[in-house]
Amino acid sequence: MSEREQEHDQHAALRVLREEVAHLVKTVPGPVAAVSLRLGDCALEVTWASAATAAQVVAAPAVPAQPPGAEEEAGEDPALTAVTAPLVGTFYHAPEPGAAPYVRVGDRVRAGQTVGVVEAMKLMNQVVAEQEGEVVEVVAGNAEPVEYGQALVRIRVGSA
């Protein structure tokens, strides 16, 4: 079989796999949380959201509401910046249970320094500070579920 024929067969297999997934998602009740496809040795993983998660998704406002006083706080100190969750998952302060946290309030951080990890699908994703400064608040609790873009740590940029 030529390389071109193999490529055509792979595209055809992928098309069939996508069609099957689309049919599966449409016929099984409940909102889908994640879909993962692989072509080599064919694999398919579909995760449906739990009823509680589905209720949160439906009830979530289109624009996240800021906590009371957030605008005033930002207005008072323009040097404050938030390190946010790069994806949905579980936030951890330390690399493992019982270990020292990556950062504490009062610590100085530099750009690129790890301030925590977010676990998603059994993978640990480092969360890094984008700017140098002083940690003024660790917003997210340890082992707490977090959403994409949620503030995890607040830093006062450039403070000495």
Categorize the overall geometry.
elongated
Helix content: 25-40%
User: What's the total number of strands?
Assistant: 10
Radius of gyration from the CA trace? 21 Å
Q: What are the segments in which pLDDT stays under 50 over at least 5 consecutive residues?
A: 51-74
Tell me the strand order in the biggest sheet.
3-10-8-5
Count of separate DSSP helical elements? 3
Largest sheet: 4 strands, antiparallel
Estimated share of beta-strand residues: 25-35%
End-to-end Cα distance, whole Å, is: 66 Å
Order of helices and strands: HEEHHEEEEEEEE
**Helical/strand content category:** alpha+beta
User: What is the residue-mean pLDDT, rounded to a whole number?
Assistant: 78
Give the topology.
Blueprint: H1 3-27, E1 32-38, E2 43-48, H2 51-59, H3 70-76, E3 80-84, E4 89-92, E5 108-109, E6 114-120, E7 123-128, E8 133-138, E9 144-146, E10 151-157
Antiparallel strand pairs: 1-2, 3-10, 4-6, 4-9, 5-8, 6-7, 8-10
